[in-house]
Design a protein that fits this description.
The protein is built from two helices and nine strands, in the order αββββαβββββ. The chain is mostly beta strands. It has one domain. Strands 1, 2, 3, 4, 5, 6, 7, 8 and 9 form a nine-stranded antiparallel β-sheet that branches.
């Protein structure tokens, strides 16, 4: 019982994200910077030949620039360090997506038991006029809204495991939306 309680405390402490947020404003613009750090560790139990461990540290930086006239630029990037033993590090690496025209991910360095990765996950320009929005670039696309699991996301270009991640992986898209009242959009 004591060991299970200790493992629960360690898991809770290492999986809790840390956040920081800063905003600057001018007369016709505003710039928001946001960052989050997350650490996760996974260890399997067994004899000495079967034990595996993975530790993932992730830093996500987000920036939003709002310009006059309804223009907005969103950018976000992930920097991830994966350390591990055995083949367990393969489970911690992000999955590839076919919905990106140009792969802006990069393996900064890879060695025996570690990988340093970066991913430009968002880079999009949005223009908003009255009830219309045009967004071009790398962005998160969600098809429909719901409180628990968006049902239309089952047809989205993501694997089922990607639906349960902290950030939905950005895809390259050109999106035109029109608002209908407070809750409708097409």
């Amino acid at each position: 019982m004591r060991r299970a309680l200790l493992m629960g405390v360690v898991l809770l402490a290492t999986a809790t994200p840390a956040r920081a947020l800063y905003d600057w404003q001018g007369e016709t613009w505003s710039l928001g910077l946001d960052g989050a750090g997350r650490s996760f560790t996974f260890v399997t139990r067994g004899d000495a030949t079967e034990r595996q461990a993975v530790s993932t540290q992730r830093l996500r930086l987000d920036a939003t620039l709002r310009l006059g006239g309804g223009a907005r630029v969103d950018a976000a990037g992930d920097f991830t360090a994966v350390l591990g033993t055995g083949g367990a590090t393969a489970y911690a690496l992000p999955s590839a997506t076919d919905w990106r025209w140009r792969d802006l991910d990069a393996t900064v360095e890879r060695g025996d038991g570690y990988s340093l990765l970066r991913d430009l996950d968002r880079l999009a320009l949005s223009l908003r006029r009255a009830d219309m929005t045009l967004c071009a670039g790398r962005q998160a696309v969600t098809l429909g809204n719901a409180l628990l699991l968006p049902s239309l996301d089952l047809f989205a270009p993501f694997t089922p495991g990607a639906l349960d991640t902290e950030y939905k992986r950005g895809v390259d898209a050109l999106r035109l939306g029109r608002a209908f009242g407070l809750r409708g959009e097409a």
